[in-house]
């Protein structure tokens, strides 16, 4: 049986990879408009099919359709849902969004990010709405609404909220971000423009100030900086459980520093041990 070819279509807004089977068609779509120009999809791709390129003064993903295995790991890691995989069955006339690598197992589901308890919200309060840099929160007559597709779990809303417990944010990554001001040329603000959570502020004349409290460690600023002035270290990845597949281990190896991988692995084991002790009531 001949190997089915994957087809690639690309314009200024999207990249679409299509794999046609007997009655099923799988499409992997990269939305370059929604993309925040981070490096997560490029970092985790097990086939190294994803790279980054400059398009109209923006850094966007590029995909080698021959290398791409349609595993959907990039879909799972994309923080803004700019990558979507869909399956269409022409016989049944059905179409659905899929994440096969999560369904198969070995790759854990990630933390829920921002959790909102609207019952604790003071009537008419919109401080979190004003604080959100992504316009993920809105307030209408029915109350506060969260658009989870826009939310990046940057914790601006949690910091602005006057009621403890109404908003709880768990970031996908924990890490450190530092800027070497000596490497910053006068007037450069590329990291300020690239940061999707507005944690950078340009200083008068030269350099930037970074607020690590709202950094999600996506890497957008690191990718945008041509002067190697930004040092980004991811220390932990928050997930609902521990992953065990080779693809997962490789992704962790590329995303976290060596000592951070040790911390992340042992922290997971300690949590499991504490949970077992709690259930055994020892």
By helix and strand content, what is the structural category? alpha+beta
Walk across the major sheet and give the strand order: 1-2-3-6-7
Total helix count?
9
Sheet with the most strands, sense and barrel status: 5 strands, antiparallel
Q: From the 3D structure, determine the CATH topology of the largest domain.
A: Alpha-Beta Plaits
Rg of Cα set:
21 Å
Q: Report how far the terminal alpha carbons are from each other.
A: 59 Å
CATH structural architecture of the largest domain: 2-Layer Sandwich
Assess the beta-strand content as a share of residues: 25-35%
CATH class of the largest domain: Alpha Beta
Instruction: Spell the H/E element sequence.
Output: EEEHEEHEEHEHEEHEEHEEHEHH
The number of distinct structural domains comes to 3
For the residues shown, what is the average pLDDT? 88
Helix content: 10-25%
Q: List low-pLDDT spans.
A: 259-274
Anisotropy-based shape: globular
What's the number of extended β-strand segments?
15
């Amino acid at each position: 049986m001949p190997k089915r070819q994957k087809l690639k279509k690309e314009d200024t807004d999207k990249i679409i990879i299509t794999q046609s089977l007997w009655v099923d068609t799988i499409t992997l779509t990269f939305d370059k408009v929604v993309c925040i120009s981070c490096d997560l999809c490029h970092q985790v791709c097990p086939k190294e099919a994803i790279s980054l390129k400059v398009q109209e003064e923006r850094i966007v993903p590029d995909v080698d359709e021959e290398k791409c295995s349609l595993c959907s790991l990039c879909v799972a890691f994309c923080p803004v849902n700019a990558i979507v995989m869909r399956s269409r069955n022409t016989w049944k006339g059905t179409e659905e969004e899929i994440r096969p690598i999560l369904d198969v197992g070995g790759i854990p589901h990630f933390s829920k990010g921002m959790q909102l308890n609207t019952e604790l919200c003071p009537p008419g309060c919109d401080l979190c709405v004003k604080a959100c840099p992504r316009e993920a929160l809105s307030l209408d007559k029915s109350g506060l609404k969260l658009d989870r597709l826009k939310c990046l779990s940057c914790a601006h809303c949690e910091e602005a909220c006057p009621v403890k417990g109404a908003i709880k944010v768990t970031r996908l990554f924990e890490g450190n971000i530092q800027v070497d001001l000596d490497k910053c040329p006068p007037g450069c603000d590329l990291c300020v423009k690239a940061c999707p959570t507005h944690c950078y502020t340009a200083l008068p004349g030269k350099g930037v100030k970074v607020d690590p409290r709202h950094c999600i460690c996506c890497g957008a600023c690191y990718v945008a900086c041509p002067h190697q002035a930004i040092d980004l270290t991811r220390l932990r990845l928050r997930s609902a459980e521990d992953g065990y597949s080779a693809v997962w281990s490789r992704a962790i190896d590329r995303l976290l520093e060596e000592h951070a991988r040790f911390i992340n692995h042992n922290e997971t084991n300690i949590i499991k041990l504490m949970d077992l002790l709690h259930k055994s009531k020892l």
